[in-house]
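hiii so um. not sure if this is the right channel but i have a protein structure encoded as tokens and i wanna go backwards to a sequence. like what aa goes where. can anyone help
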């Protein structure tokens, strides 16, 4: 049987393989307290509110990035290598931020190894002292999916200033076929920082695995059904699966004032529209705004006109804590990112609608 070593490209910082992503310095909460996600068909791509961002630190203070999921009010599911050797954990889900120093694995004790051990289960749990309240929590698969079943990988994109969740559909095969009997295998789609992200049976909120590692175009996903009894035991010891009384999942839409500009952040239906007309609800753009250095403030609704097929207009605004929707109508598309060190660092391009979720301090956004 052919065996492959799947690099986690983690602590060594190797590029191009999935795993924990090493940070040059431990990230601060305010540096990752915002998410920009595409909106498909006018609906924010937040199909999996249980998906979480997980940042970890070693006892020496080195910071690493993984993905996770909230499976119970006080229990976070992730990869074992995202827990092994770590001393503290920051969990970000929706508008909630939790810090923990309590976590464990079943048998993953690799001392920072950068390859997936086929003889161990790459599963870890982080325990919270304060419950994370979700409208609903995912379930855990009790049996293996059939060969050829479709599943959804959920992970994170980390660019140094922000994190967001993403998803990709894959076709599963038994991991034993590539030498990993405790895993599924599929075509590789996960990247650095995606480790520990949940893998859902297609069309459900049933977690069948967590992202483990990848290399050579193949990825392995640690099966959760094999450790179902252990996970259930640990959840029961940390408050149980029963959810607290339902609460509003997610912060309300907001049009709080934009810092330092007197303008308002975009509301649902607002648009940086270059339609060439001014309406009572639309503030006309002010030229020149063809470069980021000359970017104008983006109001609750802004209108403008492209001077040519290659014309580019630049705007900035401060996204407040909570959820904001930004849309564009009248033709064209926009790129969006965060203002960092006096420049615009793009997160998404070619968009007509995005959702912005801020969990800590207001964020300077560039469009």
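sure thing!! here u go:
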């Amino acid at each position: 049987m052919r065996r492959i070593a799947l690099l986690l490209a983690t602590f060594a910082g190797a590029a191009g393989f999935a795993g924990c992503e090493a940070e040059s310095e431990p990230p601060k909460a305010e540096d990752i307290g915002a998410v920009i996600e595409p909106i498909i068909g006018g609906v924010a791509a937040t199909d999996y509110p249980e998906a979480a961002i997980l940042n970890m630190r070693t006892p020496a203070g080195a910071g690493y990035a993984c993905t996770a999921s909230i499976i119970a009010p006080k229990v976070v599911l992730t990869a074992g290598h995202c827990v092994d050797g770590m001393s503290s954990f920051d969990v970000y889900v929706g508008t909630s931020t939790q810090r923990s120093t309590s976590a464990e694995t079943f048998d993953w004790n690799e001392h920072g190894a950068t390859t997936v051990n086929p003889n161990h289960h790459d599963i870890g749990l982080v325990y919270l002292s304060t419950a994370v309240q979700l409208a609903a929590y995912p379930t855990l698969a009790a049996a293996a999916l059939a060969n050829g079943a479709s599943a959804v990988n959920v992970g994170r994109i980390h660019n140094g200033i922000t994190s967001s969740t993403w998803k990709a559909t894959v076709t599963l095969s038994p991991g034993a076929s590539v030498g990993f009997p405790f895993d599924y295998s599929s075509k590789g789609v996960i990247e650095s920082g995606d480790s520990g992200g949940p893998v859902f049976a297609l069309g459900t909120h049933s977690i069948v695995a967590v992202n483990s590692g990848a290399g050579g175009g193949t990825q392995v996903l640690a099966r959760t059904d094999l450790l179902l009894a252990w996970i259930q035991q640990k959840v029961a010891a940390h408050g149980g699966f029963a959810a607290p009384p339902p609460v509003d999942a997610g912060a309300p839409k907001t049009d709080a004032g934009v810092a330092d500009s007197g303008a308002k952040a975009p509301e649902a239906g607002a648009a940086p529209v270059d339609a060439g007309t001014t309406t009572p609800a639309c503030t006309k753009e002010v030229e020149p705004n063809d470069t980021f250095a000359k970017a104008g403030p983006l109001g609750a609704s802004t209108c403008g006109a492209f001077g040519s097929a290659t014309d580019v207009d630049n705007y900035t605004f401060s996204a407040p804590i909570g959820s904001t929707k930004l849309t564009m109508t009248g033709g064209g598309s926009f790129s969006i990112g965060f203002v960092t060190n006096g420049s615009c660092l793009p997160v998404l391009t070619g968009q007509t609608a995005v959702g912005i979720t801020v969990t800590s301090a207001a964020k300077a956004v560039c469009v």
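oh and The radius of gyration is 22 Å.
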